[in-house]
Structure formats: structure tokens, C-alpha cells
Fold these 4 entries.
Entry 1:
Amino acid sequence: MNKAAFFDIDGTLIDVSKGMNEPSERVRAALRSLKDDGNYIFIASGRPIEFLDPAIMTLEFDGFVLMNGAVVLVGDDIVFDEPLDRKLVDEMISFCDNNDVEYIFESHPCVYLDKNFKLMEKFFDRFLDVGRFVREFDRDKISVHKMEFVTENFSDAVKAQYAAWLNSSELTGITDPFHNNNLELYSRKNTKGSGILHALEYLKIPVENSFAFGDGLNDLEMIQTVGCGCAMGNGNPKLKALAKHVVPGVHEDGVAVGIEKYILEATRG
């Protein structure tokens, strides 16, 4: 029976922080071998599709679990799409507008950034072409699946609100460890794991025939959801403790090692 494998991007297929901007040739070859054997390959990422690197998009993935499970694509089909509650989004906008906090709306297929938000523009301009973002729009008429925030006014009120959002029943997220004034927020009930289940159901592939590779804390749910979860050697210790296998790090072609050993050899053996 066909299998499906899901891959995180940062720290798993690439490592932008250390100049590794595209997967190695060995990893590319392993992904091609998976597809040649009739299996499916997916990206499972916290990013919207607009944030995916061109080098990733050339790998001909069969689908995408985006924004930590808020949107799931299989081929050209959107098999799951659940934006954040509009009332909640409006409350976040109101707080930000009153406290000098800039924000960006991540959706599918577009990302929306107010043309007046220069701090957020500068933040993203380091690693993305902000010219790809929609800059003029009616924010009341768009669906929002994820938001990111940045401010130079990191006041006690902003710190408290960041903490409240992170600990709410509806939201979860992460703060950038290198820029504490930056925050990402997304739905607590949708995860990479729930997104994987939507994709598997659509393809009629049993969970035991699914695999996942990741390195970070937002990969915990998918590692626990699939039949065989593989943590990267450079991954978070909590993730490695829960994974079925720990493969070498991203700079040691860990994804390729895992594909070869735990999927291809097992299938062909």
C-alpha cells in the first residue's frame, strides 16, 4: 500500500540560520525515490504557502500542511481550511493598533501586510521578498489563519498581552528567541498532527503507513500522530524523546538516512 511522508522545513530539510538554503542532493534523491515508488510526500510547516522557498517548491511535493494545520492541500484540492475566529482577530487588531504593535495576516494563498507597517516590512525583508505580499486590502474582508506581531514598544502591557494570548484556550504560538518582541500566533486546536490526519483521510491511507520528520516543538503533534515519527539529530530533546527514531542532523542528510532506512528498505526489503 502507498505511504505518505510529511516533512518540516526549517531544521529538517534546510537550515537557513547556517547558510543551508536548499536540501542536499542526497535528500532530493531520497524524496524522488519515495515518489518513484508510488508514495506521497508532503510539507508540514508553520508557514503559509507564500513563505515557502522556491528551492522547496521545485521538489514537487504532493501536498502541504500549512500554518500548523490551519490549511491542508492535496494536489490542487483544499481538503481543510479553518481560519481564526473573526471576533478574536478583531480583538487582537484593536489591541495592536492601540499599543504600537505591527502585525501581518497569513492566509491562503495570500499574505497581507499593511503598507504603513515599516517595522514588520523590515523584519521580513531579511529573508522574504515582501513584494510578494498584498499591501492594500480591506482587513475586514479577509480570512486570517495566523498572525505575527512585532513592536519596538515592548511595554509591560504588550508583554502581558503576549503572555495572555500564548496561554489562551483558543491560541498558541511561539516567540522568536532572537527577537523577543516578535510573536507568532495560530489556532490551538489545529496542529500539524491534525492536518496530517486530514490529508491521510483524503488519500485513504491508514495512519500506520505514515511517516514524519521534524526538529522543533511545533512538530510534537505530528511525530505522535503518524505511524513512524523521526526526529532530527539537531532537534529539540523533547521531540527526540517522543520519536520512534532519531536520525542524523540536517547537515548530515538525516532525512535521506531516515527515508532510506525506515521507508525504502522496509518497503523493498
Entry 2:
Amino acid sequence: MNYYIDAFKNYFKFSGRARRKEYWMFVLFNFIVSLVLGIIGKVTGITILSTIYGIAVIIPSLALCFRRLHDTGRNGAWILLSLIPFIGEIVLFIFFCLDSQSGENKYGPNPKGV
């Protein structure tokens, strides 16, 4: 849960690095919250909650994606691969699953060592 909250604390932080665990824990909690809000929306007929949540998570999600790409030694612009249907998403999925670059890279020190 701390990783989920940390993503919101670093709302506009597009620099630095993010560990795999930080990224995937945010994805997991984001999925759970979205699922619960979707179920609440279906039951009550009020879908505005999930819409507001979706808008609120866009920037922290992008910032975390940038930092995760930085951790693997890639520029944040690689996120544009998501615009290529299917193939771009698979490539990004692989990048997000890769281990951190060992030691310090041009985006900062390895978060595993901090």
C-alpha cells in the first residue's frame, strides 16, 4: 500500500528511477481500486466515481512509467510505444518486467541500493 501512496506523493515527479516492485504494486492497487469502483458504479448506477478516479490517476501513472523506464536505462519517451496497438504494449510490458540497471545510470542512483 505504501508504494501506491508514494506514487501520489510523487505526482509530478518524472525524473529519477522506480523499482519493479514499486511499479507493479501500484498497478495491482490501481486495478483493485478500479475494480471496486466499477462494481459500485454498476450496482448504484453512479459511474462518476470511477471516472474521477481514472482522471486522477493519469498523471501519477505516467510519472511512474517514466521512472520505471529510467530504471531500465531508457528514456521516458519510450512510453509513446503504447500508441502502437498490441506490439507497443507488449514491448512496454517487457521493459517494465526487466530488472533495474545495476549501479548508477544517467537518471540517478539505483533505488535498490538506497
Entry 3:
Amino acid sequence: MTAVRNFVITFFLSILIFGLIAYGLVQFTTSAFELGSEKNPGGETGGDDMGAASDTEPDSTPKDWIDIKGNSFTALLIGSNYQPDVYSDYDVKDENATNDGFPLEPRQVETPTIILLRVNKETGECLFCPIPAITRITVDGLSCQLKDLYAMKGADALCTKVMAMTGIPVDYYAVVTMSKFASFIDDLGGVTYFVETDMYYVDETIGLEINLRRGSQKLNGENAVKMLRYCGYQDGDASRRKCAVSFLKELFKVALSKIKMENAALAYADYAKYFETNFTIGDLGDNVDLIFSYNKMAIRDYAYPGTTVGTGADAYFSANIPKAIDFFSQYKYKG
């Protein structure tokens, strides 16, 4: 259950931070950044995905993209469940130094959120593809899950694996944790949002209590995080994803309305502290025109194809890699 809750919160943090770096420099209108709706719920065989693809058309006539400075790029948004304020056993060297019995195993840092972002200049669109973190993979001859690869071999290895699963190179990555999410919302002064259902949940082991009522309300950071952690929907992931996308839209409206074009470099410096990334200020400069054109792009969602096998802690995602590569072939670099 902890991993499931962490998925939701890290999902937001990952998109939020990289989005504020790569997108947040754009002075959007309050309706500019609309993610695709879940038009076709249900995956290929297991009902896990939001649908093969969904689209949101641009809010005005597209620009002549060939004249826009910048190049198409692909980024991997990686959400880590590292929570040192909750767990103290990430580093157990001191304990093992005085332990006469079997050595303690440190807590594993996982990446329960992995989202591929494709900004495609040629077609004037931006594609989001969440890749199930429980996808079964093989590393050095051993079977594991995609969420374990970052801790094992780092962000570059994770990018390489995702490239093998999609057929397109990953140019940038951004690794983020959840610890700054609530304080960021508080810095914005909270977010007014319509909570779709009554929410109540208690987990005494980590001191978590969720108690929110249905209706429009201004959420501070703490309550927003609790809402995003809630897992008690009758239909499970479908409603949780719907809540995630809906809240993200409102959060972006608040955050992006406060960022001005002339403050691009300062905004980068302010938010760079939140994540580990290979996206530099130079990359920002090279693609600044394309970045400032995002409000004219069509926003698409694509659910990575495959099916979930098993239930509970034993569940894993079996990826349909050939189908994914066929889809992503339309985004391969030209020239």
C-alpha cells in the first residue's frame, strides 16, 4: 500500500518539477496546459491503461513549427520514493558496525513513477506516456522490475532501458522526490480544487490520516498530498489517475500564472534544487523558442501497452514492447 500511495504523490512531483523547468517558463493562459482526457479506459488486455492514446487540440491555430528555434526532445520524469523524514533505515552502516548478528539490509529506494515526455516540434504536439514501474525486466541476467533499476545502476541506465522499450532515445531525465511537494503548494498559497469524493483513511504505521470532504475547497500542501495519496476508490487506478490529472491542471494554472518570461533564468535556478537532472541552462537556451510555444501544442496521452499479471505484492506488468515501438516510430528523429 505504501508503494501505491507513493506512486500518486511522486507522479505529481515528477511532472511538476520538470514541468516547471521545461514548461514553467511559459506565461500560459489559465487554460493553456490541458492534458488529454481518458477517452478509452482499459489496457490492451488487463484494463490497466488510460487507453491507447488521447488528444487535446491546441487552443489556437498552430504556429509554423519549422521557424521555431529548438529541436524535438524526449525526457524521462522519474519519481523517487525516498522519504528520510519517514524512514531512517536507508543507511545502516553504523548499525551493522555494532551488530553481531546478520547484517541489516538498507531500505531500497525505488522509482514508482516513470513518465516519458515527448516534445515533438515536427507535429506541434507534446506526448505523455506513463510507463508502469512494475514492468518486469532483466538486468545482468536477473529478473527485477523497472522501479529497481535507478537504485541499481542510476538514471542513465533507466533511460537506456526505456529507450529499448520505446525505440526512441531519451535526451533528458529529471529525478525528483516528494519531500518538497507540500511546501511548494503552501508557497503558492494553496490550490482551490473540487474534491470529487469523501476521503477517509488511516495508516498508523506512518502516522497518516486522510479526512477530506467532497466539494470545492482551498487545499494547503498537507491536505493536497493526502488527497493524492488516497487509494480508496471503488474502481482503483482509474479514479486516482483522473484526480491526478485534474489536480495537476489546477496546480499548473496557479503556478504558471506567477512565472514571467523575463524571469526564465531565475526560475531555473529556483527549481533546479528540487531534482537531479541533465537538463542544463544551456539546453533551456537552445530550446527557449520551442518551450515558449507549448501553449500552441496539442497535448496527447499514450498508455504504454501491456497487461498486469498477478495481484498484490506479486503483481508485475508484462510490456508489449513491439506494439510500443510501432507507436513511437512516428516520433523517431528525422534527417
Entry 4:
Amino acid sequence: MLKIKNVIDYLNNIAPFVLAEEWDNPGLNVGDENSQVKGICLDLDVTESTIKCAVENRANLIITHHPLIFNPLKKINKNEYPGNIIFLLIKNDISLIAMHTNADCATGGVNSVFAETIGLMHYQPLTDYGLGAIGEISSIKLNDFVSNLRCILKDKKIKFSGSPDKIISKVALTCGAGCDKELVDLAKDKKADAYITSEIKHNYLIENYDDKLSFIDIGHYTMEYPYMEKLKKLLETNFQNLNIKITGKNPFTE
């Protein structure tokens, strides 16, 4: 009988929880590790729609990228987030596992999958603790590279800074909201021509406007979703005859 703790052990094997940042909260957020697994739903975040899909598909385990609980809770109010989600999970006997910064830093994890998705060659982690990626592409104009990304990722909203005719051949990236000084400085130090991440702040664009580093802003969901597709395939291979579905959609409306 497959139990939730067996799934946790497998996830810990492919993306060890010890890799997670200290502030993070991966692993079992809600539920009973001794429960039998009847089906699994995958999503970047758990929402009421995720739970509805799980119920409809008779799944009693949801695996997300982002944890539901980060800080100690003083109350669980079913009319306020995240209490409403916790209430629904418990009411429907659904367990929740998060795979966050441990999956970001793991070999073959979130950043590795995105690097492969966009065709980054000879890539290595951007940081010494496994976060991000930096690698090479065939020399191309920045504008053409961004056009290729829009096509590959099926996202027309991708933005960039810098001269459209700038030739780039070395690219750094961090999936999710990775625009902080440490990561930007690393991208510069390692001679990246462009840095890809999400939710780039205006001050970083201005501070680096005349610099050699160009920024490419891709939505948080768009950058992290490819990993959920890979995780689905891994789970299907390891746990055969188990119903596994990807739920959810980009929170930004077209």
C-alpha cells in the first residue's frame, strides 16, 4: 500500500529537503503521512480550484511548489487565507506537500528544467549552493532571443531591457523572484550578457541601464511551470497505475 510518507521519501530523494533555505517550509504542510495515496494533483500553489480538482479526480494528495504555510499561524479562519485552504484540505481529507527552494537548488530541479527548456547549453548553477543557472546559447540578437523565448514558453508578455541588437551568448537565470543584489552581482561577475528572472524591480533596471547586463522579465508562473510537468513524469514512472494530474493556471489573465 502506497502511503504519503513513501511519496515524501521519493521527493526527498530527487530534491533533498535539506537543500531548502532556512526561512522556507517544504515537506508535509497539512495532512497525515500514514494515509494511503489514492491520487495526486500537482500545482504551483494550492488554491480552492486545486482542491476542487483533487476532489473531482478522487485525489487525496496535492504537491505544490510554493508552501501554503511559511510563518506560525495564530488562527485558522475558514473565511481568510490561508485558513480557508487549510479548512478545505482537512475537510476533504487531502494532504499537502510543498517542494520549494529544495527543488530550486536540486540537480535536475526547477532551474535545471527551465535551462533545458530554453536550450541553455553547458549550464552550471549560478550560486555555489545550487540556485539558478548560467550557460551558453548560440550568439543571437537580444530581440531575437526574446522572440524565441516567447515562442518556446507560449508567453507574449516577456519583457527585456537593453539594446534589441545587442549580441548575447551567455545567459544567467533564476526561476521565480530572483532579482536581488547577490544574484545580479553573480550574473555580472560571471560575464553573463543577460539575466532572466521574474518580478524585476524598477530600481534594478535603472541601476543597470547602461551596464553590460540586460534583464529579461518572465512571469513567475511561466518560469516554474515546466518543472511541474517533469515532476508529473517522474511520479508516473516511479508510482505506476496512480492517477496524477497537473492543475492550476497562470494567475494573470491574457
